Predict the 3D structure of the following.
Amino acid sequence: MKREVLPEREIPPMGLLPVTARWSDGRLSIAGHDLGALAREWGTPLYVYDGETVRQELAALRQALAAAYPGLTEITYAAKAYFAPRFASKLAALGLGVDVVSLGELHVAQRAGFAPEKLHLHGNNKSAAELRAALELNLQAIVVDSLDELMFLESLARGAHVGAPVRRAPRIWLRITPGLTVDTHAYRQTGHHATKFGIPIAGGQAAEAIRYAQNSPYLNLVGLHTHLGSQIHEVGPYVEAIQMLYALARAENFTPEELSPGGGWHVRYTEDAPDTQLETWVQSVAAAVQAECQRDGNPLPRLILEPGRWLAARAGVALYTVGTCKTSGDGTRWVAVDGGMADNLRPALYSARYTAIVPERMEDVPTERVNLVGKFCESGDFLIENTLLPPVARGDLLALPVSGAYQLSMASNYNLAERPTVLWLKEDEIEVLQPREDILSAAWWNSE
């Protein structure tokens, strides 16, 4: 029986694949590049990023902010999502700011072209070297995470003033912990009472930090920040957190020039995940800030949003080659690929769920229930547990959409695996963002 050839069309799951994804005669392409051909040329595991998806996601966020908030705004990318040097250069060219949490990320941001006034230094345990670098570069803001750090930073800033009394005091934000628990994985919750992050409102530490910073001639307190967690799909916690920040500021007679409710808005990884709307988040955050300022008769602060996952995740697709396919004694069907937890730790760390497709047989119906696993020597090395796939065999290509964030940035050399090649795709253009690591290169053996 002749197989029906379906016409080229936008394909499910369109909300998960990059915006340029198309298929014709069963073959998937991104930005006009056939994924099977890319895998054969560059090998697998292979990660590809669609440049147009990053651009459109950023444009949508900017448009939503402009429509919802009449004051000044800033969008800063959370570098921890993925920040290889060439990718960072793409983001800098788009006019983004960036949130860094280490000296390494700070140096990459500098080399990528981010100006100091576009940089925020975060982190719950910043080193002296990181803080000194921030002071020397005069970053847009150092986000202070504790009373201990506040006093330590002041001592460093005081030292920087010796012999240079006209030097400007560093701009700082205070990261405030409101004590709110959001509906997400426990490891992604960062705003509750027991978190290691931020200065708690409970017990008066946040109020003390505001007073201390305002009274210091060596610090310039300009803003408040909070971050509730990641993969949040309800706006209520954001609104409540903003109200708590303003209540705190009001009690201490402090008017923030800048305010950041963080990022963490939900990204869909599977078709059955909540289809949350970006505009809902932005409108709710903007309205909450405006209501608080109107209440007090204060000017609007510059509103800073901090997406990382939201800008990068959908743009990325991971490609793997199927290896062993087998059935265990209890009837469980196993499909193993040539990657796994060394390039994607999220399923093991967060019980994250993904969708897998067969990019060279897009019209095949998923009929086989399998566990999709990696090649590493850990029982927790799952990519997708208990999922439906079309029948696959050794040598077939699999693609996992929504692989652009928190995978490569957490990749490791476990079992001495090599970190994969990463490509940036545009129409008629392929650029290597990150070459495949070479474990046998001289750099690995120079320590002998």
Observations:
- Residues 1-11, 183-191 have pLDDT under 50 and may be disordered.
- The chain has two domains: 22-51+315-445, 69-308.
- The first strand starts at residue 22 and ends at 24.
